[in-house]
Specification:
By secondary structure, this protein is an alpha+beta fold. 18% of the residues lie in helices and 25% in strands. The strands form three sheets. Strands 1-3-2 form a three-stranded antiparallel sheet. A three-stranded antiparallel sheet has the order 4-5-6, with no helix packed on it. The radius of gyration is 19 Å and the shape is globular.
């Protein structure tokens, strides 16, 4: 149905300011992934040029869910790469190395396994976590009326404010 939940990844639907290196790596290694991300609404933020210089890329505004969707769509087009879906229940190990996963009761062996399930995942070994970060995220998404300006921006990426006990950010994004 187009929805995509990432349990354990609290900031999955939140707006992000991605560093310029993310853009640069995609353009260098998988330009089609950048084109897909841009097509889904990623917004390049370019700073004013320094005296006599060229404008510099400050970052990309996008939700993490949009970024991951773009990577997934681009990955599906890579020859020799299989994208599998399912509910991961555990890892397959061989001599202390993860060589696959058990998903929906079936083993899936792989040359590379990346655990991007988040800090709160039941799959993340507690010993790998560094403890409380002292930070919590709360977000809400609004839609501007058609044709309305983005509102006040105090930095090239977002509006931000510091208040007693918390910081607030407003990101215009896709």
């Amino acid at each position: 149905d187009g929805s995509w939940r990432r349990r354990g990844v609290m900031q999955f639907d939140q707006a992000h300011g991605f560093r310029p290196q993310v853009h640069d790596l995609l353009v260098a290694e998988r330009p089609e992934a950048w084109e897909v991300w841009k097509g889904l609404g990623a917004d390049r933020v370019v700073d004013r040029p320094a005296a006599g210089g060229a404008p510099g890329l400050l970052g990309i505004r996008s939700r993490r869910s949009t970024y991951e969707r773009a990577l997934r769509l681009a990955a599906a087009e890579v020859d020799g790469l299989t994208v599998a879906t399912g509910r991961v229940e555990g890892f397959i190990e061989d001599a202390g190395r993860v060589v696959g996963v058990i998903a929906d009761g079936q083993p899936h062996h792989a040359d590379l396994v990346i655990n991007a399930s988040g800090r709160l995942s039941r799959l993340t070994p507690p010993a790998l976590l560094g403890g409380d970060t002292g930070m919590a995220y709360v977000s809400r998404t609004f839609r501007r009326r058609a044709g309305s300006p983005p509102g006040p921006i105090v930095s090239p990426l977002a509006w931000s404010g510091q208040f007693h006990g918390y910081d607030g950010y407003a990101f215009p994004h896709e």
